[in-house]
Amino acid sequence: MRLGLLVCDSVAEELRPVHGDYPEMFNSLFAAAPEVDLVTYDVRVGTYPSRLDDCDAYITTGSRLSAYDDEPWITELERFIRQLDEARHPLVGICFGHQLMAQALGGIVRQSDKGWGMGVRRAVVVGREGWMQPRLDELALHMSHRDQVEELPERARLLATSAHCAVAAFAVGDHFLAIQGHPEFDQDYMAALIRRRADIVGSDAARAALATIGEETHEQVVIAWVLNFVSARS
């Protein structure tokens, strides 16, 4: 299974020597799936596959930027997302990617008045799809976001929701899957990121987020879902 990683950011330089960059994180995430061949495309500099079917599916990373920022590379990535949608080619969006997928298809993304969502966050699974095996009633993942999808695209199906993040996951057709959380983050990186952003999120919020580190997360379940999701299309 060939997966194309659409790289939308880099890990902060001071954290990279210990935690690696996004390609390394995703390679570690898929380490238990030897059938996966991960290929990277840095979309920030306009690197894209020559053909959509160069990869069985694509995955977008997170980004420090917002989906609604006026950046040429974000506009180009939106166009690519719409191309994938038109071709019904599988795409999985993570955090920023989740939000940009919604926006590209007519949804609304805004900075949330509920503040930052950081640390381990839980969402109730409200959608049931055949590829969502093993089953979960509640999805727990590391999160780091202030923006949220506030209105889903017309064709989207809500998969997971919480009081803080109404759209924690959604799907469109049988080809688009979007997840607000970060399955690629391990707990050490999540803790380092919270400490690095403490001045931005506020000391109380940072302490509360750090208190969640070590709680159970479901990144391996998410990877099973992603592999099932892509395999169902092949």
Task: Provide a descriptive summary of the structure in words.
This protein is an alpha/beta fold and about 230 residues long. The chain has a domain at about 1-110 and about 145-185 and about 220-230: 3-Layer(aba) Sandwich (Rossmann fold). The protein has helices at about 15-20, 20-30, 70-85, 95-105, 185-195, 200, 205-210, 220-230; strands at about 1-5, 35-40, 55-60, 90-95, 110, 115-125, 140-145, 145-150, 155-160, 170, 175-180. The strands form two sheets. It has a nine-stranded mixed beta sheet, with helices on both faces. It starts with a strand and ends with a helix. The relative contact order is 0.18. The model has no long low-confidence stretch (mean pLDDT about 95).
Q: Which structural category fits the helices and strands?
A: alpha/beta
Portion in strands: 25-35%
Radius of gyration: 16 Å
- Strands of the widest sheet, in order across it, are 2-1-3-4-11-10-9-6-7
CATH superfamily of the domain at 2-112 and 147-184 and 218-231: Class I glutamine amidotransferase (GATase) domain
Please report the number of helical segments.
8
Secondary structure: helix percent = 25-40%
One letter per element, helices H and strands E, the order comes to EHHEEHEHEEEEEEEHHHH
Would you state the CATH class of the domain at 2-112 and 147-184 and 218-231? Alpha Beta
Oligomer: single chain
**Could you tell me the mean pLDDT?**
97
CATH topology call of the domain at 2-112 and 147-184 and 218-231: Rossmann fold
In short:
The chain has 234 residues and is an alpha/beta fold. It is built from eight helices and eleven strands.
